[in-house]
Amino acid sequence: MDLSYILNELGEEREHYFNAIAPPIIQTSNFKFNTVDEMRQRFKDEYGGYIYSRGLNPTVDILRKKLAALDEAEDALVFNSGASAIFSSVVPFVSSGDHIISVRNPYTWAQRLFNDFLPRFGVQTSYVEGRLLSDFENAIQENTKLIYLESPNSWDFGLQDIAAISKFAKTRNCLVVIDNSYCSPYYQKPILLGADLVLQSATKYLAGHSDVVCGVLAGRKELLQKVFNLEYLTAGNGIQPFNAWLLMRGLRTLPARMDRIAKTTQVVLEYLKQHPKIESVIFPLDANFPQVELARKQMQGACGLLSFVVKTTDPKNIEHFSESLKHIMMAVSWGGYESLIIPRIAGMELKDFNPSDPMQRLIRLYVGLEDADYIIADLEQALKSITN
Ligand SMILES: *Cc1c(COP(=O)(O)O)cnc(C)c1O
Question: Which of 48, 78, 310, 347 is buried deepest, with most CB atoms within 10 A?
Answer without folding.
Answer: 78
